[in-house]
Specification:
Elements lengths: L1 E8 L24 H15 L4 E4 L1 H6 L3 H7 L3 E4 L12 H19 L5 E2 L12 H8 L4 E2 L20 E4 L5 E4 L4 E4 L2 E4 L3 H6 L2 H14 L5 E4 L15 H8 L5 H11 L1 E3 L1 H6 L2 H4 L7 E2 L3
Parallel strand pairs: 1-2, 1-10, 1-11, 2-3, 4-5, 5-7, 6-12
Antiparallel strand pairs: 6-7, 8-9
Helix pairs in contact: 4-5
């Protein structure tokens, strides 16, 4: 089973946990660390001969014009993470369209090929923002990874489908959705293998969960992380206890866990992981989920 490995390329001061403290207009005043952290990730992937999908912020691509090309030249897929890391529910449809159009065009200029994969900041395509799916399709995206089927205070569609599937938008367009991985236990979905779920969980449990998804449920899993999660030396932001706990816990263990995952499982880009699925290769299926307005 080929699993999807994805990296959300944003810097430590751009995360949702600090959004109430750090304004977009002030990002330039912080010392960036994303270039060195992405280079570190590229070295890890080269060592394991593994390809991944990098969902890159348009702001990052604008600030570091050689970084996206470096990712692409190394053989990895480039996806779009929006421009300014704004959760969708904070934008109007017009603002959302401008955000993803600006980001996608900049990324395509740098990789010289279409960018068709998208992940919303903070997985912010939820039931109230399903209107974004039509705009994604209209702007040229065919694969999304923004709908997290969990209960969470910032995101989630608790009753959403857990595995890759087609979605028919309100206007009748089709997008393939690859949700972040969850395990179904005790009548609830639990996030596994990504972000804080990866950092907080002991590795043997993560290994067991991904093996269960692959072998028992016969589905590909998705691992996701951020460059700042491999950087325990990053500057400390004075934030609430909750935000501090979410952001800084177990940063020193992330690289070890990523290396172990790459030894224990097979990974590729999100598109590569989708291509092994019959439903993706055969196109639109009769039972495609219908997105509500």
């Amino acid at each position: 089973m080929l699993n999807a490995l994805t990296i959300d390329v944003e810097d430590y001061f751009q995360v949702e946990a600090f959004s109430s403290l750090i304004r977009y207009e002030d990002w330039d005043s912080y010392t960036p660390r994303v270039e060195q952290n992405v280079s570190r990730i590229l070295d890890i992937l080269e060592k394991h001969q593994t390809s991944a999908t990098f969902f890159v912020l348009g702001w990052i691509a604008q600030k570091f014009p050689n970084l996206v090309a470096k990712i692409a030249v190394a053989g990895h897929e480039v996806g779009c993470h929006g421009f300014a890391h704004q959760r969708i529910h904070k934008q109007t449809p017009e603002e959302f369209r401008l955000d993803i159009r600006q980001a996608r065009q900049r990324l395509m200029d740098q990789v010289q090929k279409p960018v068709t994969c998208y992940r919303a900041p903070s997985f912010s395509i939820v039931k109230e923002t399903m209107w974004a799916m039509d705009i994604l399709a209209e702007e040229g995206f065919s694969l999304d990874s923004s709908m997290f089927p969990v209960r969470h205070d910032l995101y989630g569609i608790a009753d959403g489908q857990r595995f890759p599937h087609w979605i028919r938008t309100v206007s009748g367009q089709m997008i393939f959705e690859f949700p972040p991985s969850t395990l179904r236990r005790w009548n609830n979905n639990w996030g596994v293998g990504g972000g804080g779920y990866l950092r907080f969980t002991p590795y043997p449990i993560t290994h067991w969960a991904i093996r269960s998804i692959n072998q028992t449920e016969k589905q590909p899993a998705m691992v996701y992380f951020h460059p700042w999660e491999l950087d325990p030396q990053q500057p400390q932001i004075a934030a609430s206890r909750r935000s501090t706990l979410r952001h800084y816990t177990n940063l020193s263990t992330t690289e070890m866990k990523i290396n172990q995952l790459l030894r224990d499982f097979r990974f590729t880009t999100i598109t590569g992981a989708c291509q092994q699925l019959r439903s993706y290769n055969s196109g639109v299926r009769p039972g495609a989920m219908v997105a509500s307005a």
